[in-house]
Design a protein that fits this description.
The chain is of the alpha+beta class and 300 residues long. The chain is built from seven helices and 17 strands.
Length: 300
């Protein structure tokens, strides 16, 4: 992979990429749709290859572009970056000066990459990146001249990987250290029996190691609007029956101000905080025990 012009990266297309593209294209109802799927698949694979080369994690098979039914119905060219979001990888044919975005592209995108194809389809040029925040609310056309270097993408990836993206949980994408509660609580039957389960909620838990070990459970419940209800609970770990005395759980807003807090008393076997967040709202959960503390940062 080499720089051919400022901000333009040349990425080879291996036979493996063409095999995927051909397989997906032959599943379509007509040649025009097959060509669209072929190019979309190569564009997504090329961006995946570039990011993989930079040791940036991608989930190639979790995007709509890798979903049999969705790519048959819609014009999809998305690449999932776990914990970050979806990147739109749009093909650009020789001579084109703009990228036409499909009207059916309704899911959140962190931004857009222009992928310029050669006549032989043996390599592509990544023309640049445009953050979604710098586009109109529902852009229909992006001019190639609008594309920037990939530095803003790397900044977004760095910033968002420090955050736990709860909206990704709704689509089934989870950080590896946040596990199903039944796994985290497998050896703590007392705590497991107090977990509130709901059919429309998503629950994950993780082990928090301070002066002693505790278990943090987060339950996310989407509502009918852009509001999410959040329940946080802490349970004892290390086969303990009760929480450590004076253990604190504090919820902070994006500015770092304390929104609410709770402190364990003698003989508490769990403690809880509940609140609601709007789309794109950020908050932190700080857990304090003695001289040690740990903060988890979230975005909805």
């Amino acid at each position: 992979m080499t720089n051919t012009q400022p901000h333009i990266l040349s990425v080879p297309l291996p036979q493996n990429a063409h095999r995927w593209a051909e397989e997906f294209a032959t599943q379509q109802d007509n040649p025009q749709k097959g060509k669209q799927v072929y190019l979309n698949t190569l564009a997504v694979y090329a961006v995946h290859s570039y990011l993989k080369w930079l040791n940036i994690e991608t989930a190639l098979n979790q995007g709509d572009s890798w979903h049999h039914a969705l790519r048959a119905i819609f014009d999809v060219a998305d690449l999932v970056l776990p914990g970050v979001g979806k990147l739109e990888c749009r093909p650009v044919l020789p001579g084109e000066a703009a990228i036409v975005l499909p009207l059916t592209m309704t899911q959140e995108r962190i931004g857009y990459v222009g992928v310029q194809f050669s006549q032989q389809l043996d390599y592509v040029e990544l023309l640049g990146f445009l953050p979604a925040r710098e586009t109109a609310e529902s852009p229909a056309i992006l001019q190639i001249a609008q594309l920037q270097s990939f530095d803003p993408l790397f900044e977004i990836i760095h910033r968002r990987t420090l955050l736990i993206n709860l909206r990704q949980w709704v689509t089934g994408i989870f950080e590896t250290d946040w596990q199903p509660p039944e796994l985290v609580f497998a050896n703590n039957l007392r705590s497991s029996s107090t977990i509130i389960r709901s059919t429309n909620s998503i629950s994950r838990a993780k082990v928090i190691s301070l002066e002693s070990q505790v278990l943090l459970l987060l339950q996310l419940t989407p509502t009918d609007s852009e509001v999410f209800d959040i329940r946080l609970r802490i349970y004892p770990g290390d086969d303990s029956i009760h929480l450590p005395p004076d253990l604190q759980m504090i919820v902070l807003d994006e500015a770092g101000n304390t929104g609410m807090e709770v402190q364990a008393r003698d003989a508490d076997d769990w403690m809880q905080l509940e609140f609601s967040c709007q789309h794109e709202e950020k908050f932190s959960v700080k857990i304090v025990l003695g001289e040690t503390s740990l903060t988890e940062e979230f975005v909805v």
